[in-house]
Amino acid sequence: MLSDIFFLPGKLPLLKKLFWKSWYNIFAYYYGHINIVFMNYGYANLSEGTQKLELNALDEKERYCLQLYYHVANSIELKGLDVLEVGCGRGGGSYFIKRHFQPKSMTGVDISEKNIALCRQNYSLEKLNFYQGDAESLQFDDCSFDAVINIESSHCYPHVNYFFREVFRVLRSNGYFLFADFRHYRDIASVRKQLENTGLKLIKEEDITKNILVAMNLENERKNKIIQENIPKFLQGIAYYFAGLEGTRMYESFQNGECEYFYYVLQKKV
Ligand SMILES: C[S@@+](CC[C@H](N)C(=O)[O-])C[C@H]1O[C@@H](n2cnc3c(N)ncnc32)[C@H](O)[C@@H]1O
Questions:
Q1: For 110-132, how does the pLDDT look when each residue is reduced to its tens digit (9 = 90+)?
Q2: Residue 131 · residue 139 · CB < 8 Å
Q3: Spacing, Cα 111 to ligand 1 middle (Å)
């Protein structure tokens, strides 16, 4: 039974948005100084012979989190496009995409204004912008982006179908939706059904749970060190859980199949 704090707010939709917004605001306020730029479980390449992604020394520190972005963003040619990331967290992913894939513009949106303040403080590039906003009612005009990226954020939304509707609305014709997150295995079919109902055409789908799990193993020591050095003892248990350290129920839920991590590419074909 996956009844821990991650999933409890899901049973109370009205509180869910408030919970996650407050959670990330508090984390950014008290722990904004911790040098982490990603907040996802990471991705490890499992196929033999895959060329190792070349990274500079700074990016290397968060290789696996960054590889999740790379895996998702690399599905289509982003060069020269207007790209929106929803749930951009601390902005490391939008910053990486702008540098690596060279879209014309990169816009990051997050519900946490404290996260957005960190994004603006840490990343400044031409045509890279960050705004506070809600995935379920985006502030952008219809047909304003060529691609929307969403990584490990949608589990926080009370009505994911509102978000999908917004993705459809802000995408231009032939635009892409690149979407990755996890769910309890019982909820996977419902997410897929809701995606089908958007009118977006499914181009690709992948279960990447194994890649995530291997990344969690490889990241265990680094995350453990960050938590021990920065988080007060009484909060360390919950930090281990959220970080998905080995032995936590979060980690076990991926290991025993209770949770699945999926990745979809969809296209607006109208
Ligand atoms: C687990 S973090 C992932 C952040 C980032 N994608 C990454 O991989 O580093 C989830 C993010 O989703 C954001 N979020 C939660 N609910 C949201 C909503 N309704 N609209 C926009 N962002 C939201 C949170 O504030 C948080 O930054």
A1: 999 999 999 999 999 999 999 99
A2: yes
A3: 7
